[in-house]
Amino acid sequence: MNAVTSSQPKEITLRGVTLGVLITLVFTAAQVYLGLKVGLTFATSIPAAVISMALLSAFKNATIQENNIVQTLASAAGTLASVIFVLPGLLMTGWWTDVPFWPTFGACATGGVLGVMYTVPLRRALVSASDLPYPEGVAAAEVLKVGTSSRSGAAEGKAGLMSVIWGSIASVLFAAAAAAKLMAGEVAGYFRVGGSATGIGAASSLALIGAGHLMGITVGIAMLVGLVIAWGVLVPLLTSMNPMADAPASEHALRIWGTQVRMIGAGAIGAAAIVTLAGLAKPVIGGLRSALETARRAKTQGQVLERTEQDLSIRTVGLVTLVSLLPAGWLLADFLQGTVLESLSVPLVAVGIGYVLLAGVCAAAVCGYMAGLIGSSNSPVSGIAILTILGAALSVGVVGRQVTGPEAAPALVAFALFVTTVVLAVAVIGNDNLQDLKTGQLVDATPWKQQVALLIGVVAGSAVVPPVLALLNRAYGFAGAPNAHAISAQPLAAPQATLISTLAKGVIGGNLRWDLVLWGAALGLTLVVINFVVKKASKDRYSLPPLGVGLAIYLPSAVTVPVVVGALAGWAFERAASKQTWGEPAKRLAVLIMSGFIVGESLFNVALAGLIVSTGKGEPLALPIELGEVTTMIIAVVLGVVAVGGLYRWAARTALRIST
């Protein structure tokens, strides 16, 4: 390390690292479940910061920088869990029957370490010398400052912890009521209009409502537009073109949506992602050049850096990167052992390593820039995953084209998915690292210490993903998996993994419905144009993110509707709170309640999976009560309104008490 300044605040401590690891373990388990159910994850930095401040306040010598290290370490949970967007594809394609620990851990950990290394040279260009807003990084810094600067801040920190707790309790009770069959797990209705069929469904999930609140009104409106396109236009149109007179309206609508509309949605997501990423090429390349020039000047001119400008040295970054390629190569070679592709291990591993290096650098840079522009929660990781699997499938397919036989295509698909898992781990950690470094910049943290903390978080999170994924696979299974031996009759949808594996099989096997994908791509490009017009006409006040629209077309309405409801409810609450003197703390407490919704429900369902496996019963909590479908739907709606409305009111009253 370079010379340091005289100020040396307490940052990396045993208690801070221990607390950060514990939070990481809990949040990673929650994120894995949420991602498999919904295809979305949430940023964990702010709830981690609040929990840290509340617990470390018992120590008089705790510092804001120490709290920052805790949130940095724990934020790995909010990002690394995104690898489950790809990994279940190995189960869905039948390549895996269970989740092996070491290959899964190795892919997550290796990719995560590379993600940290790749973004270190970008910090000065994209954080220190950049005007990127970093909305979530700035918000996390504000929470840390408020919580440690005054007595009222300390009071808000304790109230924030209670917000997470109350939100978690409410979502656990709500999910338990659904598991006990006291209320409906989904509120839905389907109908026919002439020869067409359509309808709508909404899962009884406070976690999804919380996710919608955290995403915000812009993404919520985009997903509402996607709902209208999917279920108000495409499903009625395509069901009329593909009649199923003898089938119930629900079966007809859901089958057409699942086989045709989803592929249109996939095409829309892909096209929107490509355009979005193409627009980032210039600023990302400029950021890389600036970072390299800064490093060169520091070396040749012997500049002494302030503590708050010290990164891991370029030598360390290069060495760790090279060392990380060794386990990456071993993992890829081991993956091919005993398969039809074993004779091509050398060229396939070489292609895999090269792809991880090149695609990983690009993905980390793009995701890091997008985190600065719109926040890590809204960064188009889905688009990155789509482009990555397409590139991996094409690269692997070229090398493996000489292998023939019925086992060749599935093996190539599986290898492409595994390579993509590593690249996606690189991307999501890059997405998180720069945001954390922005938070650190605002609280006078030491960058290299944050980078070390994130490496610890990567390892901790990587150790949690395999056992949780294996437990959920054993209890619920995944939709479409040929070797599923799950106990529950309700498999997890894993929508992102379904899309990724479908694209891989389509590219390598040549059986993808390219007509539907191309129609979706045309729709995606149209949405890009509409978004451009909206932003131009409103002078960037409003936007209609095309990725959000495409995602709502692709995801089940049962998932999308609660997210939209949460976004609209959050917008209404924040608009009302903005008119009050206590509005800002009320907004922060509401964010923490919604985070609690996600954590509580997700952990409950992970625990329920354990109960399913241990008892061998698909619905171990179900009570022998028959309340009727309509009655249970009404109960679900009423309880949901009471829970959300009651906790919003609690946040307002608590904020008023803190502010006076």
Structure, briefly:
It is a multi-pass membrane protein. This protein has 660 residues and is mostly helical.
What is the strand and helix layout of this fold?
Blueprint: H1 14-38, H2 45-56, H3 64-80, H4 89-92, H5 101-119, H6 123-128, H7 135-149, H8 151-179, E1 186-193, E2 196-203, H9 206-215, H10 217-241, H11 249-278, H12 281-300, H13 314-336, H14 345-374, H15 381-400, H16 408-442, H17 447-475, H18 495-509, H19 514-537, H20 546-554, H21 557-577, H22 583-615, H23 629-659
Antiparallel strand pairs: 1-2
Helix pairs in contact: 1-3, 1-17, 1-22, 2-3, 2-7, 2-8, 3-16, 3-17, 5-13, 5-14, 5-16, 5-17, 7-8, 7-16, 8-22, 8-23, 9-21, 9-22, 10-11, 10-20, 10-21, 11-15, 11-19, 11-20, 13-14, 13-16, 14-15, 14-16, 15-16, 15-18, 16-17, 16-18, 17-22, 19-20, 21-22, 22-23
Subcellular location: Membrane
GO molecular function, one term: oligopeptide transmembrane transporter activity
Organism: Corallococcus llansteffanensis
* Major sheet size, sense and barrel closure: 2 strands, antiparallel
Widest β-sheet, arrangement of strands: 1-2
List how many beta strands DSSP finds: 2
Q: What level of helicity do the residues show?
A: over 70%
Radius of gyration: 24 Å
Order of helices and strands: HHHHHHHHEEHHHHHHHHHHHHHHH
Shape: globular
End-to-end distance: 47 Å
Question: What number is the mean pLDDT?
Answer: 82
Summed up, the helix count is: 23
Uncertain residue segments: 1-6
Strand content: under 5%
The assigned structural class equals mainly alpha
Subcellular location: Membrane
Organism: Corallococcus llansteffanensis
Keywords: Membrane, Transmembrane, Transmembrane helix, Transport
GO cellular component, one term: membrane
